[in-house]
Amino acid sequence: MIELFAALLLQSATPEAQCDVVADVSRRFGGREITSLHADCSNANSDPGLHARANEVLSRVDLDLRWDRVGQYASSIVFEMDESGVWQPLPGQVLVLTVPQFPTRSVERGNRHMACDYALWPNALGQAVNINSTCWLDGPDTDHDRQLAARAMNEALENSRFLPLDYGYCFTDGTSVTAQVVGERPAPEMPAREEPERSGLCSTGDE
User: Fold this and answer.
1) Are 145 and 106 in contact (CB under 8 A)?
2) Whole-angstrom Cα distance, residue 75 to residue 66?
3) I need a labelling partner for 58 at 20 to 30 A (CA). Which of 7, 23, 44, 150 fits?
4) Collapsed DSSP state (helix, strand, coil) of residue 31
5) How far apart are CA 16 and CA 39, in angstroms?
């Protein structure tokens, strides 16, 4: 009976597969720029439809970015098969991530840590739109400093890319940044704050 139950669970589970992301890179002015992305699903699934679907999704992504500011790249992406047998990318997958730059004016006023929560809607090109960020700092946590931090967070998200889906959804997350000043000892860790309800940051709209 246990074996039969386990078999039924496996049959009812939604198939998932992971594909590697391969980037074509060019070097310009001493920097690195990704010109295209494609998927290698050979180690994940023998279904040729997965390979074609993954590359079709990656081909939509707008790669017009400030590459000198990009900090992280996705090495793989995940798909699941829907009820009609079509491979669909899972939501919330970040392809290219830019870390926010700590506002210089806030550092001059004594801030060394900033943390932000944000919500955004990835569009059909993988761009972040309808961005809503809220930030706080460890020093003079004024409204002006929070606005500077939120602006830096928004600019970083505008220079990031997300795996496009065939429908709109709100993606929420958070990040923190530490400023290290030459000649100073490392700043103590930022005091922990109560986890906010990030879903409240989602604006209305589908793009």
Assistant:
1) yes
2) 20
3) 150
4) strand
5) 15
DSSP E strands, 59-127: 70-73, 76-81, 87-89, 94-98, 113-122
How far is Cα 123 from Cα 70, in angstroms, rounded to an integer?
19
Q: Which CA distances in Å does 103 have to 21, 96, 132? A: 32, 22, 18
∠ CA 145-150-152, nearest 5°, is 95
- pTM here is 0.83
Q: How far is CA 176 from the centre of its chain?
A: 14
CA distances from 68 to 27, 104, 126, 167 (A): 11, 18, 19, 30
**Distance separating alpha carbons of residues 181 and 172, to the nearest angstrom:** 30
Residue 111 tokens read as: 């801030």
pLDDT single digits (tens) 140-170? 878 999 999 999 999 999 999 999 999 999 9
The pLDDT tens digits of the residues spanning 62-104 come to: 999 988 888 888 999 999 999 998 999 999 999 999 999 999 9
Cite the beta strand spans of the chain per DSSP E. 16-28, 31-40, 70-73, 76-81, 87-89, 94-98, 113-122, 128-137, 161-162, 171-178
- Total residues found in the chain within this entry: 207
